[in-house]
Amino acid sequence: MSEKLQTLRRLIVEGQAKPAREACEAALSEGLPPVRILNEALISAMDEVGKLYECGEYFVPEMLISVRAMKEALSLLKPRLQAAEVKPAGRVVAGTVKGDLHDIGKNLVCMMLEGAGFEIRDLGVDVAPERFVAAVREGGADLVALSALLSTTMPSMKATIEALREAGLREKVKVMVGGAPVSDKVAREYGADGYAQDASAAVALARNLAGVGVA
Amino acid sequence: MNGRERLRRTLRREPTDRAPIDMGSTAVTGIQAATYARVRKALGLPDAPVRVEEPFQILAEVEEPVRRALGIDTIGLPGRDTIFGFPNVAWKPWTLPDGTPALVSEHFRYVVDEKGDTLLFPKGDTSASPSGRLPKGGYYFDAIIRQGPLDEEHLDPQDWAEQFTAFTDEDLRDLETRSLRLYEDTGYSLVGCFGQAGVGDIAFVPGQMLRVPKGLRDPNLWYEYLASHPDYIRGIFDLWAGNAMRNLELYRQAVGDRIDVIFMGGTDFGGQRGTLVSPKMFRELFKPYYKAANDWVHRNTGWKTFYHSCGSVAKLLDDFVDMGVDILNPVQCSAVGMEPEGLKAKYGDRLVFWGGGVDTQQTMPFGTAAEVGAQAGERLRTLGAGGGYVHCAIHNIQARTPVENVLAFFEAAKGSPVLA
User: Fold this and answer.
1) Do A104 and A199 sit in the same domain of this protein?
2) Which of B228, B281, B366 is nearest residue A65 as measured by Cβ atoms?
3) Are the CB atoms for B194 and B81 separated by under 8 Å?
């Protein structure tokens, strides 16, 4: 790996936003292809952050500052990646389900997925089943990611999956669920394709469901 | 044996005729108002609107006949103002989202927006921007994030100063009067809902009680700033803890030894699988403030300190003991490392477990009454062995909980003596 990419990767893992942006600028001005910067520095760094989280080295604050640094670099790459028509790892429609306004966990999952090369359409909080259906129908999606914090709103996940089925879209997308009261058992009962216990696990699950390997 | 005696003996880990029971003494051991209305009805009490004592989570004020019927041993001494910065005075009618008739403070002023969401105003001031949102078809308010522009180069902790105020003479007279009345007219153990020592509690970060909150107010950014701007966070914590320490002394003067337990704070440090922040960050950024407050309580009063943190906090419990926490709540047994047998074996001689009685994420809302009774019975045996356990659900009893499950939970504690 080029030295510039190694530096950028390290700065993202360390969560140093401004230096990461500068390192990304330097890599671009050296003529490195944006897709290579994305894969070898950004995605690779966020995989490392996920591993550090899983093994108990990193916690939510450390993960968030790495995400911030990754986003700084990604903002420089995005227009170039789009111009080069680089395909994302998968297209994700995400949101917190109807009746539920909690978004910290959902946001973290979206940011980690973005850091893994997925294209995210975040519908926000209190998202009714019909809005998920409309988003999938209008923009297309490979994955639908549903979040709930409350035991009272968790059943909205089931209603959303039912709505996708009724709209004839269920077979076209994979559905993943997560949130404090959610479990593997709940995911199976509701007819989801998978459950992730945290943002790092969500990346692994999304890759699995979208059929993409680790960069 | 009355409730006060039963609870005091339990705090000392002495035998009792049964485990003491709490529901409704604090905003983390309460019951959602619509569920409460159904419990009331099941107990055969005459129809009456439910008073919403805590408007954020829409928790009911638990009344005397319910307390008696369920065998509750505690009573709370709430502060004057709710989290939205208005007092609970002059009740007026309001209808809960499921149609249940309720009463709310006259300062509970709201609008319903075009989506059908209910928006609540801070301090009851309709000229301010609303600070709470109850989504249409939802069950609880959540904070509206009113984050103004942040200049990261010039962050000033003083932006938060408005949030931390000293008790007024009126506050203190009110606390004194209410605590005297509850102490003299009832046999319950009093829980002082102080709460101000919960430095860094994310529930207060959005500033729902303020007309115009300043500084860092977005919970998403808050967790990031814990790592990226620790000096700014420490500056806010200095203000937070400084005010709490001054108010602790005033609180002691007002309520004296009429309360047995003081609710210190509820900063959540656990997720389902582990801590939200590293043990190192906890020790460096948070613990010194908690230790100072608990030390003050132990030096100056006979109160036991009650501390709430959801989730998996097993890796912080040695620190909790070290910083002087006497009572742990809500004891989320379903989280990693929080299995009741292990907690009791390792910490039973140092921490009183106030909660852990039943899982409110799965068993209580979705299980059968028999499953609730079985889990409650098992927790009474494990957490309750030798005393040091207050029978209480894991956090508030939620909306949509079947009423027979609620009744089964309380029934489980009756008639089983706690031996030495």
Assistant:
1) yes
2) B228
3) no
Angle formed by the axes of helices A44-54 and A104-115, nearest 10°: 140
Of B142, B220, B398, nearest to A151 by CB-CB distance is B398
Smallest CA–CA distance from A100 into chain B, residue: B138
Average pLDDT for consecutive 10-residue bins of chain B (420 residues)?
Answer: 97 97 98 98 96 98 98 97 96 96 98 97 98 93 95 96 97 98 98 98 97 96 96 98 98 98 97 95 98 98 98 98 98 97 98 98 96 98 96 96 98 89
Q: Architecture of domain B3-89+151-411 in CATH? A: Alpha-Beta Barrel (3.20)
Residues in chain A: 215
Q: Is the dihedral of CA B309, B310, B314, B316 positive or negative?
A: negative
CATH number at residue A137: 3.40.50.280
Expressed as residue numbers, the domain containing A79 is 3-83
SS (H, E, C) chain B: CCHHHHHHHHHCCCCECCCCECCCCCCCCCEEHHHHHHHHHHCCCCCCCEEEEECCCCEECCCHHHHHHHCCCEEEECCCECCCCCECCCCEEEECCCCCEEEECCCCCEEECCCCCEEECHHHCCCCCCCEEECCCCCCCEECCCCCCCCHHHCCHHHHHHHCCCCCHHHHHHHHHHHHHHHHHCCCEEEECCCCCCCCCHHHCCCCCCCCCCCCCCHHHHHHHHHHCHHHHHHHHHHHHHHHHHHHHHHHHHHHHHEEEEEEECCCCECCCCECCCHHHHHHHHHHHHHHHHHHHHHHCCCEEEEECCCCCHHHHHHHHHCCCCEEECCCCCCCCCCHHHHHHHHCCCCEEECCCCCCCCHHHHCCHHHHHHHHHHHHHHCCCCCCEEECCCCCECCCCCHHHHHHHHHCCCCCCECC
Provide the pLDDT confidence category of residue A215 given band limits of 50, 70 and 90.
Answer: very low
Among A49, A83, A117, identify where a domain stops. Answer: A83
Give chain A's domain count: 2
- The DSSP secondary-structure symbol of A172 reads G
Measured between CA atoms, the residue of chain A closest to residue B116 is: A99
Q: Same domain for A106 and A66?
A: no
Instruction: Report ipTM for this prediction.
Output: 0.92
Helix H or strand E encompassing A77: helix A60-83
Q: Please tell me if residue A65 touches chain B, with a CB cutoff of 8 Å.
A: yes
In a domain, A38, yes or no: yes
pLDDT digits (tens, 9 = 90+) for B326-382: 999 999 999 999 999 999 999 999 999 999 999 999 999 999 999 999 999 999 999
Instruction: For residues A54 and A102, state if they share a domain.
Output: no
Tell which residue, B403, B328, B415, has the closest CA to residue B372.
Answer: B403
> Counting Cβ atoms within 10 Å, is residue A192 exposed (0-12), middle (13-18) or buried (19+)?
buried
**Shortest Cα distance from A178 to chain B (angstroms)?**
11
Q: Cα separations (Å) of B92 from B49, B141, B406?
A: 10, 19, 28
How is the beta sheet containing B259-265 ordered, strand by strand?
A: B74-77, B189-192, B259-265, B304-308, B327-329, B352-354, B389-390
- A198 and A96, same structural domain? yes
| Subunit contact B398:A98, Cβ cutoff 8 A | no
A215 assigned to some structural domain: no
Please report residues of A whose CB lies closer than 8 A to that of B362: 151, 181, 183
Name the helix (H) or strand (E) containing A215.
Answer: none
Please count the other Cβ atoms lying within 10 Å of the Cβ belonging to residue B51.
18
